[in-house]
């Protein structure tokens, strides 16, 4: 799951960077860069989706590893 998240995030950064770079290269030096509407509109959705996937993965990781990490602390007579 983490590989999928990182892969999709990396792919989107490459697409976003390539579109931005090519669009800026086409413009003359005096023109102001305005990102394409589809690029600006989809950035928020993609970053939100990536954040949700990361949060779910992190939650699943904690769910699995916390009992293992604190196994002896919970059953010991003396807790630090």
Structural class: mainly alpha
Mean pLDDT: 76
Record field, number of beta strands: 0
Reported for the largest beta sheet, the result is: none
Tally of separate helices = 3
Give the topology.
Elements: H1 2-26, H2 37-69, H3 71-75
Helix pairs in contact: 1-2
Feature tags:
mainly alpha; rod-shaped; 80 residues; single chain; 0% strand
In short:
This protein is mostly helical. The chain has three helices and no strands.
Please explain how this structure is put together.
With 80 residues, the protein is an all-alpha fold. The protein has one domain (2-75). The chain is built from 3 helices and no strands. Helix 1 (2-26) packs antiparallel against helix 2. The longest helix is centred in the middle third of the chain and has 33 residues, at 37-69. The radius of gyration is 22 Å and the shape is rod-shaped. The two termini are 35 Å apart. The mean pLDDT is 76.
């Amino acid at each position: 799951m983490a590989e999928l998240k990182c892969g999709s995030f990396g792919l989107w950064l490459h697409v976003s960077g390539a579109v931005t770079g090519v669009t800026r290269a086409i413009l003359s030096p005096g023109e102001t860069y305005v990102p394409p509407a589809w690029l600006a509109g989809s950035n928020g959705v993609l970053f939100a989706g990536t954040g949700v996937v990361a949060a779910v993965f992190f939650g699943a990781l904690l769910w699995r590893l916390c009992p293992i990490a604190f196994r002896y602390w919970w059953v010991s007579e003396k807790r630090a």
